[in-house]
Amino acid sequence: MNRMRLDKFLCDMQIGTRSYVKDLIKKGQVSVNDTLIRKPDFQVNTACDLITCMGNTITYQNLYYYMLHKPSGVVTATRDKHVPTVMTLLSDACGKNLAPVGRLDKDTEGLLLITNDGELAHNLLSPNRHVPKTYYVECTGTLSADTVTLLENGVEIGDETPTRPAQVKVLTQLADFYTMELTITEGRFHQIKRMVQAVGGSVTYLKRLSMGTLLLDESLPKGSYRALTEQEIMGLKTR
Fold this sequence. Notes:
Helix content: 10-25%
CATH class of the largest domain: Alpha Beta
Structural class: alpha+beta
Low-confidence stretches: none
Largest sheet: 9 strands, mixed
Strand content: 25-35%
CATH superfamily of the largest domain: Pseudouridine synthase I, catalytic domain, N-terminal subdomain
CATH architecture of the largest domain: 2-Layer Sandwich
Order of helices and strands: EHHEEEEEEEEHEHEEHEEEH
Number of helices: 6
Number of strands: 15
Distance between the termini: 28 Å
Oligomer: single chain
């Protein structure tokens, strides 16, 4: 439905509380299609009406998309009684019912998509979609050509089936330490850590770089977020 009360529209767009926007309307600070409206219960069409509040045009938006550069130390959840969650970093973000898409471990950093678009979240997380996710991984242990082949072909990590084939890009390799970019198309519990452990290594640092077509904006400081661009949103939806 595109029709709603004027005061609800302004509240949904986070202009202020219901009492605040009612006061704005009664004081003549809001117009609809260039006509001054003083009734909070005036019905507006969010699809086509031109709504102006205090001189600013307000466009209706009910779906929101944010990129968070998740830092270590916060859990990927909407709420937690004991530790800070990623949602505490978006306390001033517009949009109702925002939630993270997928999970990153408490000590894992990097790209996290936050949205209230349930359909998009479902499509990105669906096991049948095989959405690629790329991680930067620092590991202790040794890395051989055979180890890389194992990771690329799929390894046993204690589940009913081996992991799906992965893409491995080795970045650095020392006697007992290596770094790589690892791309997987699943989202199993602690999957990266378990894959590395299965080939004799141990993950010391993990950072997600991408999810589908969405790439982490490296200019975004840890703990900060920004709205996705239209191009980024379309990229996720048309994959």
